[in-house]
Amino acid sequence: MGDKQSLRQRWTRHSLVLIGAGAIYVSIGVAFLNASSLAKRAPSLKVALHVIPIDGWGIIYILIGAAAMASSMMTFWWKVRGYMILAGLSSGWAAFYIMAIFFEDAPTVTWVNALIFLLLSYIWITVSGLISPERARELVKEAADVSSDRRS
């Protein structure tokens, strides 16, 4: 990992977002691990639970959340990967909700859940490409330095 930057230099606004999102995904995973038997029979979750039991989903959410939090302390390209794993899980979860509507007679209000997870996926994908304010300041400073060098 030959990167010589200190942790302080790598800490950006993206780090904060990934820590917060990762903590929320870990919390969802813990909730799934402690889900009641009623939640395990929810029609909206039938397709997802055909693939993996709810405890398995809990572990997946915890691992994805932990990976996102770990990526927050890495270089920018690792942060992008953190966003992509969050987007992947969110997109997959939205797909399970949509399939439950069509194949498992889940209530149509399940569309709301699907749209929320699609929105999350969209946010993770778009935010990953934004330049953090810290990097924007660096770019402005570099541009000013180049401009002053040209005048000399």
Radius of gyration: 20 Å
Q: How many domain units?
A: 1
Number of distinct beta strands: 0
Distance between the ends: 38 Å
Estimated helix fraction = over 70%
Portion in strands: under 5%
Oligomer: single chain
Shape: elongated
User: What pattern of helices and strands is seen along the backbone?
Assistant: HHHHHHHH
| Helix vs. strand class | mainly alpha
Average residue-wise pLDDT: 86
Largest pleated sheet: none
Q: TL;DR?
A:
The protein has helices at residues 7-10, 13-33, 37-40, 46-51, 54-71, 76-103, 110-128, 133-151.
Describe this protein's structure.
The protein has one domain. With 152 residues, it is mostly helical. The chain has eight helices and no strands. The two termini are 38 Å apart. Helix 2 packs antiparallel against helix 5 (54-71), helix 5 (54-71) packs antiparallel against helix 6 (76-103) and helix 6 (76-103) packs antiparallel against helix 7 (110-128). The model has no long low-confidence stretch (mean pLDDT 86).
Secondary structure topology:
Blueprint (H helix, E strand, L loop, with lengths): L6 H4 L2 H21 L3 H4 L5 H6 L2 H18 L4 H28 L6 H19 L4 H19 L1
Helix pairs in contact: 2-5, 2-6, 5-6, 6-7
